[in-house]
Write a structure and sequence with these properties.
Blueprint lengths: L11 E6 L8 H4 L3 E7 L8 H10 L9 E6 L5 H18 L14 H21 L5
Antiparallel strand pairs: 1-2, 2-3
């Protein structure tokens, strides 16, 4: 079951600029680089728990105002870069979709307990041999 079927288009804000890299004369006159901004605080498409996981996992991509900023300039077409930004956002949301499993504590094995005690005793003996002899 997907956590979010679709983010409403009204929540996404796109801005365009000239991209760098290959493209010849086209790169100098066409704004193909896409910057996507999505305010996660104002979004109604994610539940609170998912927002918390999103903040925890992608805190470097979120500004102080709670705005997720993604860029794409992979393609020479503005439309393909828009689709790429949206795909990146959906991949991020899919990464936090399932809550992490809770760790179940287990009892240590007998051999691990014995090994720990044996190493503690050997360390203790080593340190005793280093001490000054007291009369």
């Amino acid at each position: 079951m997907p956590i979010v079927k679709r983010i409403p288009a009204g929540e996404l804000d796109f801005s365009f600029s000239r991209s760098s890299g290959a493209g010849g004369q086209n790169v100098n006159k066409v704004n193909t680089k896409v910057s996507l901004r999505w305010n996660i605080n104002k979004s109604s498409s994610l539940p609170k728990t998912a927002k918390d996981r999103f903040y925890k996992k992608f805190k470097r991509r979120i500004s102080d105002g709670g705005v997720v900023i993604l860029h794409s300039q992979r393609y020479r077409s503005q439309a393909r870069n828009i689709a790429d930004c949206i795909e990146k956002l959906h991949e991020m949301i899919e990464a936090i979709a399932k809550p992490p499993k809770k760790r179940v504590g287990t009892k240590p094995t007998r051999s691990s307990i014995e090994k720990r005690i044996k190493t503690k005793k050997s360390k203790s003996e080593t340190k005793k041999t280093r001490q000054k002899v007291r009369y």
